[in-house]
Amino acid sequence: MTTNRPVALVTGASSGIGKETALALVAAGFDVAGTSRDTSRVAPLDGVTFFDLDVAGDASVTAAVQQVIDRFGRIDVLVNNAGVGSMGAAEETSLAQDRDVFDINVFGVMRMVKEVLPHMRAQGRGRIINLSSVLGFLPQPYMAAYAASKHAVEGYTESLDHEVREHGVRALIVEPAYTRTGFEANSPRPDAPLRAYAELGRTVDSVMTDAVRNGDAPTVVARTIVAAATDSKPKLRYTAGPLAGRATALRRFAPARIFDKQIRRMNKLAA
């Protein structure tokens, strides 16, 4: 099967931001390939064709991308949404846990890019949209591995964008703030908890829970992703929602000492 409609591939499309993005892209006129690690457990979405994919597996990524090409004949937009969180002090999380975060959030993005980019170069167009976070440019105590993974995504995407523009392809970054998904509740906890971090860890956990509960709806992020996919003159970075916009301004314009104090104040840590 081939199609004359643009085709978008969205990883992690079974729930949350990925699900809303898949639906928003359908509404914008795309044929959408969504992925999940176990499609047998995914409720059908109108206009979305699901494929099994584990972004942490080389063979899985290769097979899924080929299946999408076989089905639709092309991929015009890749949305690298699949990701995992990490909670706990840096000293408490094992290297194995940190590797898992990077294997999904960073190397998962790289695996997808390496499989999809040759098809985009061959057709002379395409957009790669990588989901970062405000933690791609802000620090976050008790989420060091996650913040580091999103900082890595930002550097990788910005560098990639310079490489692929001459081939008609753009690599773009979408930066959500806190979003009402299961992110915080589903994030792995430290496998070597330490009493030294217990009290402040509970404080930051509480801050994060409240922030997610009062955060943006996933549809806010989905609309931003559609804009990145369809803008005639795309920007390198898209902030999703007003809180993300304020965070960007804080990072860019606040003096270092004020910025540091604000980060501690936001997380209810002693000055």
Automatic annotation (TrEMBL):
Name this protein carries in UniProt: Oxidoreductase
Keyword field contains Oxidoreductase: yes
Signal peptide extent: none
Record InterPro entries: NAD(P)-bd_dom_sf, SDR_fam, SDR_oxidoreductase
Keyword match Ribosomal protein: no
Entry's family note: Belongs to the short-chain dehydrogenases/reductases (SDR) family.
Pfam families: adh_short
Top-rank taxon, per record: Bacteria
